[in-house]
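hiii, so i know i said id send this last week but things got crazy w the move. better late than never?? heres the sequnce for the chain we talked about at the cafe, plus the structure i predicted for it. fair warning i was half asleep when i ran it
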Amino acid sequence: MAPVVACQALAPDGFHPSVSGTAAPDNRETVSREERRRLRRMISNRESARRSRARKQRHLEELRSQAGRLRLENRDLVVRLGGLIQRCVLVRQDNDCLRAEASALSRRLAELRSAAALRHLQHRLMAAPPHVHAQYELAWASSLMA
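okay and structure toks below
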């Protein structure tokens, strides 16, 4: 009959597997080198998998935390953007009013300059001899028609 392989509980300093044979009860041999290597590798793999799961869990928690922070930051940015949009609307309204006022003032300035030029022309005409009056009136009339 073939020998049966059994593993004992691991001791703190390592493991002590043994093989029990069917021959004599006191004929216990240690597990073969390959079997010990296989068992060590199995334990090492389990420990590595445990560490990997722990790393994955920590990474997942970090990602959840980062997502929460980013959601808060996004909410703050949305509120800030809303305020900036309102401010932009007010600035544009003020700008439109100022442009309209500047346009009205520009027209008024052009009217005043025209009036000043006419007064200046009248004063020169009044100071000129009578034969020059006719020339100025003719020039003035032609400028009005143009």
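btw The longest helix spans residues 33-127. thought thatd interest u
miss u guys!!
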